[in-house]
Write a structure and sequence with these properties.
Elements lengths: L3 E5 L2 E7 L5 H14 L8 H4 L6 H8 L5 E7 L2 E10 L5 E9 L8 H14 L5 E7 L3 H10 L2 E6 L2 E6 L2
Parallel strand pairs: 5-6
Antiparallel strand pairs: 1-2, 2-3, 3-4, 4-5, 6-8, 7-8
Helix pairs in contact: 1-3
Length: 165
Amino acid sequence: MLFVIFTRGDMEICCKILSSKDSHMYRDLRLESLKLYPESFGSSYEEQSQLPKLFFEKLIEEQCETHVMIGAFKNGQLVGLCGLIPTGSGDSLEVVQMYVSTSTRGQSVGQQLLSKACSILSSRREGKLELTVYVNNDAAIASYEKFGFKQVSKIDQEIVMNFEP
């Protein structure tokens, strides 16, 4: 399934794996996330904005099949991101670069991105989703728990969470 479409009232959100034609929109939204919420990510806007290609931007353009970036679109505009990369152990897909633009927060966009991540997971050999979130990111933790993620460990200021369908 390429698309997951979610409708709430007059709002329609479409989630899909980003293709090479989406790479510029990805770059813009990723840099927005780093600029507006530096405390939520391990990378900085200052460093990333100077790179000719971001890590996932290159993978999107190459149409990498092992590392995928899911995008949420509202009226043709990219409003959310959710990256999936295989873990070293090979039994999980790690959720990375999760972000929903401020204009669409509170509208279940993050939940729809995670639903699309689960549909991708079901077609792969990995058995669970894994993510790391900063302990002070209460909104993200609540959203992940609402979806069904469970906290499995805490290391310094980070919580590791897993979701097993």
